[in-house]
Amino acid sequence: MLEGKYISFKLGEEEFALPILNVQEIINPVKTTKLPDMPPNTIGVVNLRGKVISVIDLRKKLSIASENGNSQNKKRVIVINMGRLTCGGLVDSVTGAVEVKKEHLKEAELVSKVDCVQAIATLDDDRVLQLLDAASLMPATDESVLDEDVVGEDIDEDGKVVVSKRIAGRGGGLIVKEIQDRIEDKAAETGEDFEHIKDIVEEIQVLLDALSAGDFKKVEEIIDRMSVLGEHDLFSEVGKVTRNLHNAIKDFKSIIDPRLKNMALEDMPDASDKLSWVITKTEEAAGKTISLMEKNISLQSDLIRKLDILDDPSKKLKKGSKEYKESLKFLRSSLEDMNSDFMDVLIAQEYQDITGQIIKKVIDLVGEVEGQLVELVKVFGVKIEPEKKAKCLAGPQIKEGKGILTSQEDVDSLLSEFGF
Amino acid sequence: MFDNKMKILVVDDFPTMRRIMRNLLKELNYLNVVEAEDGSAALAKLKGEKFDFVISDWNMPNMSGLDLLKSVRADADLKGLPFLMVTAEAEKDNVVEAIQAGVSNYIVKPFTAATLKEKMDKVIEKHGG
User: CA quadruple A41, A46, A49, A52: dihedral positive or negative?
Assistant: First the structure.
């Protein structure tokens, strides 16, 4: 990097050189305008064809003792260019253009205590040149940043600050700092978060440093990183969606847990078992009742037959006769049997107590399931169209409604319409 | 053929209901009663022996009363059989469907012995008994 063409110049007895690529032109000293608060090494500013540049005293900058009687007419101002930054450097005299080769170079830190000096070159003719770093010579206050076309900012319709600026400077640090301050001001003003813009601006500084150092591999890396930063909005949108989804799933879980799980895993099968038990119980009771009734219906015909015997005038049974007594005895014991059977029938109805409780519990469960399902539908916020009911038998009708025939009379009137 | 000796097939999946029906029929002096627990069992019995009357529930597993009715009406040997539907299905559409399938009459559960007698007599009368 260091080898190449240089412009060499003198400051006192020492000879220095600047890369020819950083030298825009060499002009005669002109009258400078002094500005308040100028850095100590700066002589003033001059207007170079419409562009205001600082002129710095390189003797002071490089800590070289003040001149003592050197010819004023050899003095020149070297216009130094670094990116878009330009400044003038006052030198005692310009000695010409030189070619610095690799073998001329020595590491600067071994020989120089001035950090502007990158290296020392000993030329073939034994001249010793201190190779200067153009960037380090640039004044801390860069007057060119005052140019309107260089710095600009705008607020777009979304209220976001768009900093449009042609970045230049010593590694860009100065301008980057300025932009960041503005972003912070704007953020404080609008209450918005511009952190990601600041990140990008920071990356720009590193990018500029890398560019000026010629580290193109790093430049590529930074551009890759910045393009990721530029996708901030996309990432944050994806992030929001993900968060919403996560919350929705959490809400969903909090609504269905834990009752619905219990209902599905335990209560419902339990309810099914209990309802099956109800069927068994009612069937048992019905069976028992029917059996007792069947027995008593046939007993009834026996009783009637016995009564017929007792009542038969043709037989003229005497009260004390054997047949009379037996018939009476049969009637009595039959009535006792009937009484006991009727009590059994009565007791057989006790199933109603237990089955009633069970059915009530199942009804509660069904109600609860209904509530949970309604909650689920609410969570989804979906309007669910009831599906056309699959064709199935409605079973016993317990509520009156359209198309429901509640009594045999209704059915009969319908039947008569069909000619029954 | 429609006397008290006529053979009646009672089709219902609930044994209690079959017993009640059997007792009601006994009360009406119909003692020749055979039971079947669903439509397919009933159809098998109808094809195996001669019956004079069918009293069937509608809602049953395997084969419903309506399907049984349709099968009976589609069978050359059975199509004239009196078929009384006794069911809890009381929607108008159900009744119309049964009528269209060729039901002889329709009783809605719960029913009384008087209704059963009246409907049976009507069916018997209609079938020329």
Answer: positive
